[in-house]
Amino acid sequence: xxxxxxxxxxPATRLRRLRRTPALRALTTEVTLSASNLIWxxxxxxxxxxxxxxxxxxxxxxxxxxxxxxxxxxAMRLGIPSICVFPHSDPDLKTEGCERAWDPENIxxxxxxxxxxxxxxxxxxxxxxxxxxxxxxxxGLVRDGIILNDETVEALVRMALTQAEAGxxxxxxxxxxxxxxxxxRAAMEANGHKDMAILSYAAKFASGFYGPFRDAVGASGRLxxxxxxxxxxxxxxxxxxxxxARDLAEGADMVMVKPGMPYLDLCREVRDRFEVxxxxxxxxxxxxxxxxxxxxxxxxxxVVMESLIGFRRAGCDGILxxxxxxxxxxxxxxx
Length: 335
Ligand code: PBG
What we know:
Layout: H1 22-27, E1 38-45, E2 52-54, E3 57-63, H2 65-78, E4 82-88, H3 107-118, E5 123-125, E6 141-143, E7 146-148, H4 149-166, E8 170-171, H5 180-190, E9 197-204, H6 211-216, H7 237-250, E10 254-258, H8 264-274, E11 278-282, H9 284-296, H10 302-313, E12 318-321, H11 324-334
Parallel strand pairs: 1-3, 1-4, 1-12, 4-5, 8-9, 9-10, 10-11, 11-12
Antiparallel strand pairs: 2-3, 6-7
Helix pairs in contact: 2-3, 4-5, 5-7, 7-8
The structure holds ligand PBG.
Ligand PBG binds next to helix 6.
EC number: 4.2.1.24
Subunit structure: Homooctamer.
Keywords: Heme biosynthesis, Lyase, Porphyrin biosynthesis
Protein backbone atom coordinates (compact mmCIF):
# COMPACT_ATOMS: atom_id res chain seq x y z
CA UNK A 1 0.00 0.00 0.00
CA UNK A 2 1.52 3.35 -1.01
CA UNK A 3 1.42 6.03 1.67
CA UNK A 4 -0.38 9.23 0.69
CA UNK A 5 1.58 12.49 1.12
CA UNK A 6 0.11 14.63 3.86
CA UNK A 7 -0.95 18.00 2.47
CA UNK A 8 -1.50 20.54 5.23
CA UNK A 9 -4.77 22.42 4.96
CA UNK A 10 -2.97 25.79 4.88
CA PRO A 11 0.56 27.11 4.01
CA ALA A 12 2.85 26.82 7.04
CA THR A 13 4.08 30.37 6.51
CA ARG A 14 1.96 33.07 4.93
CA LEU A 15 4.55 35.71 4.00
CA ARG A 16 1.85 37.61 2.15
CA ARG A 17 0.30 38.65 5.49
CA LEU A 18 2.85 41.44 5.82
CA ARG A 19 2.55 42.51 2.20
CA ARG A 20 -1.21 43.04 2.36
CA THR A 21 -1.45 46.83 2.85
CA PRO A 22 0.84 49.83 2.31
CA ALA A 23 0.99 50.34 6.10
CA LEU A 24 2.13 46.78 6.75
CA ARG A 25 4.64 47.02 3.94
CA ALA A 26 5.93 50.32 5.35
CA LEU A 27 6.32 48.78 8.82
CA THR A 28 8.34 45.87 7.49
CA THR A 29 10.62 47.77 5.10
CA GLU A 30 14.18 46.69 5.80
CA VAL A 31 16.30 49.38 4.14
CA THR A 32 15.64 52.97 3.23
CA LEU A 33 17.13 55.54 0.92
CA SER A 34 17.45 59.17 1.84
CA ALA A 35 19.06 62.18 0.19
CA SER A 36 21.81 61.94 2.80
CA ASN A 37 22.97 58.70 1.18
CA LEU A 38 23.78 60.44 -2.10
CA ILE A 39 26.90 61.92 -3.65
CA TRP A 40 26.15 63.87 -6.83
CA UNK A 41 28.84 63.76 -9.56
CA UNK A 42 28.89 66.89 -11.75
CA UNK A 43 30.89 67.82 -14.84
CA UNK A 44 32.29 71.33 -14.95
CA UNK A 45 33.60 72.77 -18.21
CA UNK A 46 36.09 75.52 -18.89
CA UNK A 47 35.44 75.49 -22.62
CA UNK A 48 33.31 78.33 -24.00
CA UNK A 49 30.17 76.64 -25.29
CA UNK A 50 31.20 73.35 -23.64
CA UNK A 51 28.17 73.40 -21.37
CA UNK A 52 24.92 71.59 -22.13
CA UNK A 53 23.52 68.08 -22.33
CA UNK A 54 25.84 65.12 -22.82
CA UNK A 55 24.52 63.05 -25.73
CA UNK A 56 25.21 59.66 -24.15
CA UNK A 57 23.85 60.78 -20.73
CA UNK A 58 20.44 62.31 -21.48
CA UNK A 59 19.39 64.63 -18.66
CA UNK A 60 22.97 65.26 -17.49
CA UNK A 61 24.66 68.52 -18.41
CA UNK A 62 28.17 69.85 -18.37
CA UNK A 63 28.07 72.95 -16.20
CA UNK A 64 29.82 76.29 -16.25
CA UNK A 65 31.27 77.55 -12.97
CA UNK A 66 28.01 79.43 -12.41
CA UNK A 67 26.10 76.25 -13.19
CA UNK A 68 28.21 74.42 -10.60
CA UNK A 69 27.27 77.03 -8.03
CA UNK A 70 23.60 76.56 -8.85
CA UNK A 71 24.01 72.79 -8.54
CA UNK A 72 25.58 73.30 -5.11
CA UNK A 73 22.59 75.36 -4.03
CA UNK A 74 20.25 72.67 -5.36
CA ALA A 75 22.16 70.02 -3.41
CA MET A 76 21.86 72.07 -0.23
CA ARG A 77 18.15 72.61 -0.76
CA LEU A 78 17.53 68.90 -1.37
CA GLY A 79 19.70 67.61 1.49
CA ILE A 80 22.34 66.00 -0.73
CA PRO A 81 25.45 66.23 1.47
CA SER A 82 28.14 65.96 -1.18
CA ILE A 83 29.03 66.91 -4.75
CA CYS A 84 31.88 65.30 -6.67
CA VAL A 85 33.58 67.51 -9.27
CA PHE A 86 34.77 66.19 -12.64
CA PRO A 87 36.61 68.61 -14.91
CA HIS A 88 35.96 69.02 -18.64
CA SER A 89 39.22 70.67 -19.57
CA ASP A 90 40.50 72.51 -22.60
CA PRO A 91 41.88 69.90 -25.04
CA ASP A 92 44.57 72.32 -26.23
CA LEU A 93 46.03 72.41 -22.72
CA LYS A 94 46.36 68.64 -22.27
CA THR A 95 49.98 67.52 -22.20
CA GLU A 96 52.04 64.37 -21.81
CA GLY A 97 53.34 65.65 -18.46
CA CYS A 98 49.81 66.52 -17.24
CA GLU A 99 51.17 69.66 -15.57
CA ARG A 100 47.75 71.29 -15.39
CA ALA A 101 46.60 68.62 -12.96
CA TRP A 102 48.39 70.52 -10.17
CA ASP A 103 47.72 74.04 -11.38
CA PRO A 104 45.77 75.79 -8.60
CA GLU A 105 43.82 77.53 -11.36
CA ASN A 106 42.72 74.41 -13.26
CA ILE A 107 39.00 74.02 -13.80
CA UNK A 108 38.64 71.35 -11.12
CA UNK A 109 40.16 73.59 -8.45
CA UNK A 110 38.22 76.63 -9.61
CA UNK A 111 35.02 74.59 -9.36
CA UNK A 112 35.87 73.49 -5.80
CA UNK A 113 36.36 77.12 -4.77
CA UNK A 114 33.21 78.28 -6.57
CA UNK A 115 31.09 75.64 -4.84
CA UNK A 116 32.61 76.36 -1.42
CA UNK A 117 31.84 80.04 -1.94
CA UNK A 118 28.08 79.47 -2.17
CA UNK A 119 27.75 76.28 -0.12
CA UNK A 120 30.53 76.02 2.45
CA UNK A 121 28.69 73.25 4.34
CA UNK A 122 28.58 70.97 1.31
CA UNK A 123 31.21 68.18 1.32
CA UNK A 124 33.11 68.69 -1.93
CA UNK A 125 34.68 65.53 -3.28
CA UNK A 126 37.42 65.50 -5.92
CA UNK A 127 38.65 63.07 -8.52
CA UNK A 128 42.34 62.31 -8.34
CA UNK A 129 43.62 60.93 -11.64
CA UNK A 130 45.49 62.54 -14.50
CA UNK A 131 43.04 61.72 -17.30
CA UNK A 132 41.36 65.16 -17.60
CA UNK A 133 44.75 66.77 -18.24
CA UNK A 134 46.51 63.91 -20.05
CA UNK A 135 46.98 64.13 -23.81
CA UNK A 136 46.51 60.35 -24.15
CA UNK A 137 43.51 59.97 -21.83
CA UNK A 138 45.21 57.72 -19.27
CA UNK A 139 44.94 58.14 -15.50
CA GLY A 140 48.73 57.90 -15.20
CA LEU A 141 51.86 59.21 -16.88
CA VAL A 142 52.82 57.20 -19.95
CA ARG A 143 56.30 56.45 -21.22
CA ASP A 144 56.89 54.16 -24.21
CA GLY A 145 53.35 52.86 -23.88
CA ILE A 146 53.82 51.93 -20.19
CA ILE A 147 51.81 53.58 -17.38
CA LEU A 148 54.43 54.68 -14.86
CA ASN A 149 53.33 53.89 -11.31
CA ASP A 150 55.64 55.76 -8.94
CA GLU A 151 56.05 58.86 -11.10
CA THR A 152 52.25 59.03 -11.38
CA VAL A 153 51.84 58.80 -7.61
CA GLU A 154 54.14 61.81 -7.20
CA ALA A 155 52.02 63.75 -9.70
CA LEU A 156 48.80 62.71 -7.94
CA VAL A 157 50.14 63.99 -4.63
CA ARG A 158 50.86 67.39 -6.20
CA MET A 159 47.37 67.39 -7.70
CA ALA A 160 45.74 66.47 -4.38
CA LEU A 161 47.58 69.20 -2.48
CA THR A 162 46.11 71.83 -4.80
CA GLN A 163 42.64 70.32 -4.29
CA ALA A 164 43.11 70.43 -0.52
CA GLU A 165 44.22 74.06 -0.74
CA ALA A 166 41.15 74.85 -2.88
CA GLY A 167 38.94 73.63 -0.04
CA UNK A 168 38.09 70.01 -0.87
CA UNK A 169 36.57 67.92 1.92
CA UNK A 170 36.97 64.45 0.43
CA UNK A 171 39.76 63.27 -1.86
CA UNK A 172 38.69 60.64 -4.36
CA UNK A 173 41.70 58.88 -5.86
CA UNK A 174 40.34 57.00 -8.91
CA UNK A 175 43.64 56.25 -10.64
CA UNK A 176 44.38 52.74 -9.29
CA UNK A 177 48.15 53.21 -9.03
CA UNK A 178 49.85 51.21 -6.25
CA UNK A 179 50.85 53.13 -3.14
CA UNK A 180 48.79 56.25 -3.87
CA UNK A 181 46.77 56.17 -0.65
CA UNK A 182 49.84 56.00 1.58
CA UNK A 183 51.49 58.80 -0.38
CA UNK A 184 48.38 60.98 -0.27
CA ARG A 185 47.88 60.37 3.44
CA ALA A 186 51.51 61.23 4.23
CA ALA A 187 51.32 64.41 2.13
CA MET A 188 48.10 65.51 3.85
CA GLU A 189 49.59 64.88 7.31
CA ALA A 190 52.73 66.81 6.41
CA ASN A 191 50.96 69.79 4.88
CA GLY A 192 48.35 70.85 7.40
CA HIS A 193 45.49 68.64 6.16
CA LYS A 194 45.40 65.99 8.89
CA ASP A 195 41.62 65.82 8.79
CA MET A 196 41.30 65.36 5.03
CA ALA A 197 38.94 62.47 4.28
CA ILE A 198 39.97 59.99 1.61
CA LEU A 199 37.31 57.98 -0.20
CA SER A 200 39.37 55.53 -2.18
CA TYR A 201 38.16 54.13 -5.47
CA ALA A 202 39.43 50.84 -4.11
CA ALA A 203 37.59 48.12 -6.03
CA LYS A 204 37.61 49.86 -9.39
CA PHE A 205 37.15 47.54 -12.31
CA ALA A 206 38.24 47.91 -15.96
CA SER A 207 34.73 48.47 -17.21
CA GLY A 208 32.95 49.27 -20.43
CA PHE A 209 30.33 51.05 -18.36
CA TYR A 210 32.56 54.16 -18.17
CA GLY A 211 31.97 54.92 -21.86
CA PRO A 212 29.54 57.85 -21.50
CA PHE A 213 31.72 59.43 -18.78
CA ARG A 214 34.62 59.57 -21.20
CA ASP A 215 32.32 61.43 -23.63
CA ALA A 216 31.33 63.76 -20.81
CA VAL A 217 34.90 64.74 -19.93
CA GLY A 218 36.07 64.75 -23.54
CA ALA A 219 38.38 61.75 -23.17
CA SER A 220 36.81 59.36 -25.65
CA GLY A 221 38.72 58.89 -28.85
CA ARG A 222 41.76 60.14 -26.96
CA LEU A 223 42.51 57.06 -24.87
CA UNK A 224 45.44 55.11 -26.30
CA UNK A 225 44.80 51.42 -25.56
CA UNK A 226 42.82 50.55 -22.43
CA UNK A 227 43.10 50.77 -18.63
CA UNK A 228 43.53 47.05 -17.95
CA UNK A 229 47.06 47.37 -16.58
CA UNK A 230 45.76 49.35 -13.61
CA UNK A 231 42.02 48.76 -13.17
CA UNK A 232 40.85 45.38 -11.80
CA UNK A 233 39.79 42.51 -14.07
CA UNK A 234 35.96 42.19 -13.81
CA UNK A 235 36.41 38.48 -13.10
CA UNK A 236 38.44 39.08 -9.92
CA UNK A 237 36.66 39.18 -6.60
CA UNK A 238 39.61 38.27 -4.38
CA UNK A 239 41.88 40.82 -6.01
CA UNK A 240 39.26 43.53 -5.46
CA UNK A 241 39.10 42.61 -1.76
CA UNK A 242 42.89 42.86 -1.55
CA UNK A 243 42.68 46.36 -3.05
CA UNK A 244 40.23 47.40 -0.35
CA ALA A 245 42.31 45.90 2.47
CA ARG A 246 45.43 47.58 1.13
CA ASP A 247 43.81 51.02 0.72
CA LEU A 248 42.41 50.89 4.26
CA ALA A 249 45.78 49.87 5.65
CA GLU A 250 47.35 52.82 3.81
CA GLY A 251 44.94 55.34 5.33
CA ALA A 252 41.68 55.49 3.37
CA ASP A 253 38.67 56.48 5.51
CA MET A 254 36.02 55.17 3.14
CA VAL A 255 36.06 52.85 0.15
CA MET A 256 34.21 52.53 -3.11
CA VAL A 257 33.10 49.73 -5.38
CA LYS A 258 32.86 50.81 -9.02
CA PRO A 259 30.85 50.22 -11.21
CA GLY A 260 27.86 49.44 -9.03
CA MET A 261 25.12 47.21 -10.35
CA PRO A 262 27.25 44.43 -11.89
CA TYR A 263 29.37 44.38 -8.69
CA LEU A 264 26.75 44.25 -5.91
CA ASP A 265 28.33 41.06 -4.58
CA LEU A 266 31.44 43.08 -3.73
CA CYS A 267 29.43 45.85 -2.09
CA ARG A 268 28.00 43.32 0.35
CA GLU A 269 31.28 41.56 0.91
CA VAL A 270 33.30 44.73 1.43
CA ARG A 271 30.73 46.09 3.91
CA ASP A 272 30.60 42.87 5.92
CA ARG A 273 34.31 42.16 5.88
CA PHE A 274 35.77 45.62 6.60
CA GLU A 275 32.95 47.39 8.46
CA VAL A 276 33.92 50.82 7.09
CA UNK A 277 31.82 53.36 5.19
CA UNK A 278 31.31 51.75 1.79
CA UNK A 279 30.11 53.50 -1.34
CA UNK A 280 29.08 52.31 -4.77
CA UNK A 281 29.42 54.35 -7.92
CA UNK A 282 26.45 53.87 -10.21
CA UNK A 283 28.53 54.90 -13.21
CA UNK A 284 27.72 56.74 -16.42
CA UNK A 285 26.89 53.60 -18.42
CA UNK A 286 24.47 52.42 -15.75
CA UNK A 287 22.82 55.84 -15.80
CA UNK A 288 22.65 55.77 -19.61
CA UNK A 289 21.06 52.31 -19.67
CA UNK A 290 18.37 53.18 -17.17
CA UNK A 291 17.61 56.72 -18.29
CA UNK A 292 17.78 55.72 -21.97
CA UNK A 293 15.32 52.86 -21.50
CA UNK A 294 12.96 55.08 -19.52
CA UNK A 295 13.02 57.70 -22.26
CA UNK A 296 12.28 55.02 -24.83
CA UNK A 297 9.26 53.99 -22.78
CA UNK A 298 10.76 50.54 -22.21
CA UNK A 299 11.05 50.87 -18.42
CA UNK A 300 9.10 52.86 -15.86
CA UNK A 301 10.86 55.58 -13.85
CA UNK A 302 10.36 53.44 -10.72
CA VAL A 303 13.47 51.47 -11.67
CA VAL A 304 15.65 54.43 -10.65
CA MET A 305 14.62 54.07 -7.01
CA GLU A 306 14.77 50.28 -7.25
CA SER A 307 18.35 50.45 -8.51
CA LEU A 308 19.39 52.68 -5.60
CA ILE A 309 17.58 50.61 -2.96
CA GLY A 310 19.55 47.68 -4.35
CA PHE A 311 22.78 49.36 -3.28
CA ARG A 312 21.43 50.02 0.21
CA ARG A 313 20.27 46.39 0.50
CA ALA A 314 23.75 45.29 -0.61
CA GLY A 315 25.18 47.18 2.37
CA CYS A 316 26.28 50.46 0.82
CA ASP A 317 26.25 53.50 3.08
CA GLY A 318 25.98 55.76 0.09
CA ILE A 319 25.88 55.94 -3.67
CA LEU A 320 27.51 58.21 -6.21
CA UNK A 321 24.81 58.63 -8.83
CA UNK A 322 23.87 61.00 -11.62
CA UNK A 323 20.27 60.43 -10.49
CA UNK A 324 21.01 62.24 -7.21
CA UNK A 325 19.02 65.47 -7.83
CA UNK A 326 16.13 63.63 -9.51
CA UNK A 327 15.86 61.16 -6.65
CA UNK A 328 16.33 63.71 -3.89
CA UNK A 329 13.54 65.79 -5.42
CA UNK A 330 11.28 62.73 -5.40
CA UNK A 331 12.16 61.92 -1.80
CA UNK A 332 11.45 65.53 -0.79
CA UNK A 333 8.01 65.38 -2.44
CA UNK A 334 7.19 62.17 -0.59
CA UNK A 335 8.20 63.94 2.63
C1 PBG B 1 38.83 58.34 -14.21
C2 PBG B 1 37.41 58.18 -13.81
C3 PBG B 1 36.49 57.48 -14.58
C4 PBG B 1 35.28 57.57 -13.92
C5 PBG B 1 35.48 58.30 -12.76
N1 PBG B 1 36.82 58.66 -12.70
C6 PBG B 1 36.65 56.85 -15.90
C7 PBG B 1 37.72 55.88 -16.14
O1 PBG B 1 38.27 55.26 -15.24
O2 PBG B 1 38.02 55.72 -17.31
C8 PBG B 1 34.03 56.96 -14.44
C9 PBG B 1 32.74 57.42 -13.90
C10 PBG B 1 31.56 57.06 -14.72
O3 PBG B 1 31.63 56.28 -15.68
O4 PBG B 1 30.49 57.57 -14.37
N2 PBG B 1 39.65 59.06 -13.48
